[in-house]
Specification:
Layout lengths: L2 H21 L11 H18 L3 E5 L6 E6 L7 E7 L19 E3 L8 E3 L3 H20 L6 E7 L7 H9 L8 E4 L11 E6 L1 E10 L5 E2 L10 H10 L22 H8 L5 H8 L12 H4 L5 E9 L9 E2 L2 E10 L5 H15 L5 E10 L2 E2 L5 H14 L4 E4 L6 H9 L3 E3 L15 E3 H24 L3
Parallel strand pairs: 3-6, 3-7, 7-17, 8-16
Antiparallel strand pairs: 1-2, 2-6, 4-5, 5-18, 8-15, 9-13, 9-14, 10-12, 11-13
Helix pairs in contact: 1-3, 1-12, 2-3, 3-12, 4-11, 10-12
This protein binds ligand BES and manganese (II) ion (2 copies).
């Protein structure tokens, strides 16, 4: 048994206990009422980094929630790995659908996690995955095997658009200088088939408001004679896709880089069962853009989805009313080379244009971000692949993901470094949903795989000094 494996074996109960401690602090960045908990979580991450042996740890103030920065420099001539993660979590709603309280973690086994999974908000996204890096670092320190320099940047606003991170990165280029960025905040195909995420989608997020009459009206006295904002908004939203589920906003696809036949054939080789996919979601049929497979639709194609829609009377019983206003939150997932600001502008112009004169519309942009695609012919990818091959017994498959981590494109632009996305979650881990969980197997396997990444990365770095 390797030294790392032995150390994990002897310390796994504590590794799990410490993660449960972090999960008990409800660090919901979107909701101000959790402010103290978010700050307490930053402090806890700071303390764990210090305990693991980091020779410099600080809680860096920003206009928003702080960034926990840690650094362990052993030799200026050796490469530096920058680990990024986030300690904030999504709101737990809808609370009623949780089988156990979101901030009281419990371990239960599931079909895909026979060894148990930790159920709590943030278990997979991203406390569990972020904490693997702290434990891997602890192990390398204890076994005296850390082969290079390491920096940690753990933020508290990822789930609300990373605005302060943008601010921080632009002001701290030197402090953050690195040779490769390592992130575990994505997923892999299955516990027997690891994959490395080679692409993330970008994002444009808008909120729309449709106003009809200046007050709510009796739907008998006025119904049929004035525009009902909810009817109008529904119709406008429905018109944003055509019969083939293509998005109808003029210019929306202009900058989309189409995947080549070869890339699509390569993608199709990844193991995937449409039957299991449908079964897991309890749906009779999948749905999406004509001409593309399910895996293409959820990774290499741009999309437009309503995330929330409201207005009028939603209380108990019936109320005959025409609301004055209707609202929706709409997200567009983007692919290279779509520009989030341009797409937001195209959406705004189009949405204003298709509105009937009988209503007024407002489009308010939220956060956005660029898509990211990384090549696999670099030493970071190769090192990650060698690490997975060692611990899983099979090589990892490169795979583009549909999710977004907007700061990855920012890192490339500002820090000029490539990011390696070593995710250990599963799509079925219910991130952002009730009953989020993270496999104990995945957590421990991640801790075991990360030190191997460092080892192989430094080996390859010495062979190919850049
Ligand atoms: N960790 C996720 C992103 C993710 C998950 C990427 C799984 C790939 C696979 C991240 O925390 C997240 O939720 N990102 C948001 C965007 C952000 C701007 C709020 C997303 O993708 O919706
Ligand atoms: Mn995340
Ligand atoms: Mn998330």
């Amino acid at each position: 048994m390797s030294g790392v494996k032995k150390y994990i074996d002897q310390n796994k109960d504590r590794f799990i206990e410490e993660l449960l401690h972090l999960l008990r602090i409800p660090s919901v960045s979107a909701d101000k009422s959790y402010e103290k908990d978010v700050l307490d979580t930053a402090q806890a991450v700071h303390d764990y980094l210090q305990k693991a042996g980091c020779n410099k740890v600080e809680i860096c103030k920003t206009p928003g929630y702080p960034i926990v920065f840690g650094e362990h420099i052993i030799d200026e001539n050796l490469p530096t790995v920058l680990v990024y993660g986030h300690y904030d979590v999504q709101p737990p709603d809808p609370i009623d659908l949780w089988e156990s309280p979101p901030f009281e973690p419990v371990i239960k086994s599931t079909d895909l996690h026979p060894d148990g999974a930790i159920f709590a908000r943030g278990a997979c996204d991203d406390k569990g995955q972020m904490f693997m890096h702290l434990k891997a670092f602890e192990i390398m320190m204890k076994l005296n095997s850390l082969p290079c320099n390491v920096k940690f940047m753990i933020e508290g606003e990822e789930e609300v658009g990373s605005e302060s991170l943008d601010w921080f990165v632009k002001r701290n280029q030197d402090k953050l200088k690195n040779d490769v960025i390592l992130i575990s905040d994505t997923g892999m195909i299955s516990n027997s088939q690891p994959s490395i995420t080679t692409g993330l989608r970008g994002l444009s997020y808008v909120e729309v408001e449709v106003t009809g009459p200046n007050r709510d009206l009796h739907s008998g006295l006025y119904g049929g004679a004035v525009a009902n904002p909810i009817n109008v908004l529904s119709k406008m939203i429905a018109s944003l896709h055509d019969e083939n589920n293509h998005i109808t906003i003029p210019g929306f696809y202009d900058k989309v880089i189409e995947a080549t036949e070869e890339e699509r054939n390569e993608m199709a080789k990844a193991p995937f069962s449409l039957e299991n996919y449908k079964k897991a979601l309890d749906i009779d049929e999948v749905y999406g853009e004509k001409g593309y497979t399910t895996n293409e639709r959820n990774s290499i194609r741009p999309t437009l989805d309503v995330n929330g829609i409201w207005g009028g009377y939603t209380g108990e019983g019936a109320k005959t009313v025409i609301a004055s206003k209707a609202y929706a939150k709409i997200s567009m997932r983007l692919v290279p080379d779509q520009d989030p600001d341009e797409i937001t502008e195209l959406f705004k112009n189009h949405f204003e244009k298709i509105a009937p004169k009988a209503v007024k519309v407002k489009v308010n942009p939220h956060h956005g971000g660029h898509a990211y695609v990384t090549p696999i012919d670099n030493i970071g990818y190769q090192a990650a692949n060698k690490a997975y091959t060692d611990t899983f017994g099979v090589p990892a498959i490169p795979q583009r993901s549909g999710g977004s981590i907007p700061i990855v494109a920012l890192f490339e632009k500002e820090l000029k470094s490539k990011t390696i996305l070593m995710g250990f979650g599963l799509d079925s881990d219910a991130i952002h949903s009730p009953n989020e969980h993270y496999g104990v197997f995945n957590y421990l396997k991640g801790i075991e795989t990360i030190p191997l990444f460092y080892k192989y990365y430094v080996d390859l770095f010495k062979m190919n000094p850049s």
